[in-house]
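User: My collaborator sent over this chain with a note saying "see what the structure looks like." That's all I know about it. Can you take a look?
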Amino acid sequence: MDCSRVSVNPTIIEDIFIWPLLPHQGMSRRTDRVQRKVKIPSSASKKSKKKKSEKPGVIPCGIASCDEFADKHKGGRSLSQENAIETWGDGGFTVRKNRVRVCKGCYKTWKKDNKDDNNTPHY
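Assistant: Without extra context I'll predict from the sequence alone. Here is the result:
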């Protein structure tokens, strides 16, 4: 069979080559339905129920009347010597590297004592 004599409808050939370039209005696979959300089981989204063992305290609170620990993971902070003198007086604390390490409770006490202090600038 001779291929040169075969008659082919030219519109069909054009449709074959132009089809990928045309906007497909009715051919889309998208639907108007809202996609369902996948529910995650409540047990999978929560963290494990095991309680983590608390780390023991290493750095003692610098205030003489306190027996707590001033470690960062326990909420401890570091105050300057001047700030400690204002609240606990001279000699009511121990100094470590020019700072006074205080536990969370002592820091709250210092914070309440200096809450209404007008000496601190408000930016």
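A starting point for your reply to your collaborator: Helices lie at 10-18, 42-45, 81-88, 104-113.
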